[in-house]
């Protein structure tokens, strides 16, 4: 279990923070240094992974992906051209998957093109920052998969050097369905010993596209997929549980399942609750749990159960 951001009775408690930032950023670089050598780097290396989520439409889209920068050690070097080479580095994806128990796949080569040949880049005289765009054919992507691209700076010209800490960058490139976004979760949680009174709580979460009509609950302060609940008065979450919400596109009925790989805990929808998605307000209502009785009712002293009202706040 992990503590996360808690919004309750007007009190904000932040126990731990792990922030993944999006790729769209404004870099205000210092273009000239007066010591050492000219340094070439990518500011995108500041985070473990740059998360980029695009709408399903339009089917083809171009956006900025890679940011490059040179910190010149003199005005003369800044006003000279400088060559730079990069290359795809799939090892970055594999390493991230291993460290974070994720399942990113490399974005299919046939689905994208870059605006420049990254093996033959050049900073023009006076240019200290470069941006490389990507054009993605979204029709070739599967909404149920997670895609990523890794890049490394491999060579620079003149007497410039590559930054040791800022040479590798990893990008998650995903599609968003209509249910994807940031939500305020107003919920309650029943646990026989940790939350016997089914105490209510509120916390902001994200719902990430996992299929054409499904989303997984993501907690930004954890940097992972969880469902929070009050445990002894503190907001925590079970491990090995990744709640995935599937919306029936015809009836708007919601079902919730544990999508954790190798899961041994499985959810059922609690009987008698109107589980649904309201398109007009983009609000989700659901109640689910496990260790229920044969009629899917909560059993005091035995069951674990969550009740959700997820109110849409905006895109992520």
The gross shape turns out to be elongated
Oligomer: single chain
CATH H-level superfamily title of the largest domain: hypothetical protein (bacova_03559)
Count of all domains:
2
Any guess at the CATH architecture of the largest domain?
Answer: Sandwich
Q: Beta-sheet strand percentage?
A: over 45%
Quantity of strands, as a count: 25
Estimated radius of gyration? 23 Å
Give the secondary structure arrangement, pairings included.
Elements: E1 6-8, E2 11-13, E3 39-41, E4 50-55, E5 60-71, H1 75-78, E6 82-88, H2 91-100, E7 105-106, E8 112-114, E9 121-123, E10 129-137, E11 147-156, E12 161-162, E13 168-176, E14 181-190, E15 200-211, E16 214-219, E17 224-225, E18 228-231, E19 234-237, E20 243-247, E21 254-258, E22 268-269, E23 276-278, E24 283-290, E25 304-314
Parallel strand pairs: 3-12, 4-13, 7-11
Antiparallel strand pairs: 1-2, 3-5, 5-10, 6-9, 6-11, 8-10, 11-13, 14-15, 14-25, 15-16, 16-17, 16-20, 18-19, 20-21, 22-24, 23-24, 24-25
């Amino acid at each position: 279990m992990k503590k996360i951001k808690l919004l309750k009775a007007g009190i904000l408690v932040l126990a731990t923070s792990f922030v993944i930032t999006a790729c769209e950023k404004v870099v205000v670089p210092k273009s000239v240094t007066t010591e050492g050598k000219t340094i070439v780097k990518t500011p995108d290396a500041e985070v473990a992974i740059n998360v980029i989520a695009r709408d399903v439409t339009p089917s083809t889209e171009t956006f900025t992906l890679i940011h490059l920068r040179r910190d010149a050690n003199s005005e003369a070097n800044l006003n000279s051209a400088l060559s730079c080479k990069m290359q795809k580095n799939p090892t970055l994806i594999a390493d991230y998957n291993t460290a974070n128990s994720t399942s990113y796949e490399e974005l299919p080569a046939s689905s994208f093109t870059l605006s420049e040949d990254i093996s033959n880049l050049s900073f023009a005289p006076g240019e200290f920052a470069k941006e490389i765009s990507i054009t993605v054919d979204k029709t070739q992507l599967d909404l149920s998969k997670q895609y990523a691209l890794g890049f490394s700076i491999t060579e620079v010209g003149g007497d410039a050097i590559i930054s040791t800490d800022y040479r590798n960058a990893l990008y998650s490139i995903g599609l968003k369905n209509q249910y994807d976004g940031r939500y305020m979760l107003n919920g309650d949680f029943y646990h026989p010993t940790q939350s016997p009174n089914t105490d209510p709580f509120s916390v902001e979460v994200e719902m990430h596209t996992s299929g054409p009509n499904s989303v997984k609950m993501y907690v930004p302060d954890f940097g992972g997929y969880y469902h929070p609940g009050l445990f002894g008065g503190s907001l925590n979450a079970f491990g090995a549980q990744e709640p995935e919400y599937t919306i029936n596109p015809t009836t708007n009925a919601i079902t919730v399942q544990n999508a954790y790989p190798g899961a041994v805990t499985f959810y059922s929808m609690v009987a008698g609750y109107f589980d649904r998605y309201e398109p007009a307000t983009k609000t989700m209502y659901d109640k689910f749990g496990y260790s229920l009785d044969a009629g899917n009712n909560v059993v005091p002293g035995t069951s674990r159960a969550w009740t959700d009202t997820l109110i849409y706040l905006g895109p992520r």
